[in-house]
Amino acid sequence: MTNKLTQLNYRWLLYPLAILLCLTFSPTSMATLITIDFDSGLAMGNTYTENGVIFSEVGGVMFGPADGGHLQLFDSNGDSSNNLQSSGSHGCCHIDIYFADGYIFDLTSVDVSADTGLNQLTASSGAIFGIDGVNIYDFTTIPGWSNLSSLHLDDIAGLSIESMVFDVHKVSEPFTIFLLGLGLIIMAYSRREFVSRS
Ligand SMILES: [Ca+2]
Ligand SMILES: [Ca+2]
Fold first, then answer.
1. Which of 1-5, 58-62, 130-134, 153-157 has the highest mean pLDDT?
2. Residues 155 and 191 in one domain
3. What 8-state DSSP symbol labels residue 20?
4. Residue 167, beta-bridge partner list
5. Which range marks the domain in which residue 40 is found?
6. Cα of 49 to ligand 1 centre, how many Å?
7. Which of 51, 57, 102, 195 has the most CB atoms at less than 10 Å from its CB?
8. Which ligand number lies closest to the CA of residue 75?
9. What's the pLDDT tens digit per position in 134-159?
10. Contact 140, 108 (CB under 8 A)
11. pTM as predicted
């Protein structure tokens, strides 16, 4: 009798534990919204890094103070937060955007303060979006902007971006993968036990 009770408890404890592990450490539950406002990052050489996101000007001069490079970090619209914008006297730019840790992400939104046209965003999925005017663009409603490894921004002449929001999936951490795997193994084992005893 005691032995049977122990087996019963053992079986019914394993299954919830496995489900808890899987739910807690599954990749989708690790998604985190990250807003880049171009205020708190570090501009160095041809890159700007904020909150783990790298903006790298491809083959360009560099990010500069007011007018020292292709790109500026400057509050052009007076809302006390910097914009990422092209510098009029230095022509246009091409920028790669990605996470320093190689995280996979969804592009959630881009807040555009100024745009004179011909500015194009390309996703690693192959999706292309032509920015057309001043707007807060909601990419969650457009197919092709999820599970990305990078973005590419072309010809940002006349473009001024107030902020960008990313939904990052932190799936590359070995410990997370280990715990998720452990949860799946326990779940499979406890299910086998359940089937063999019933
Ligand atoms: Ca800003
Ligand atoms: Ca601003």
1. 130-134
2. no
3. H
4. 33, 106
5. 32-169
6. 14
7. 57
8. 2
9. 999 999 999 999 999 999 998 777 88
10. yes
11. 0.71
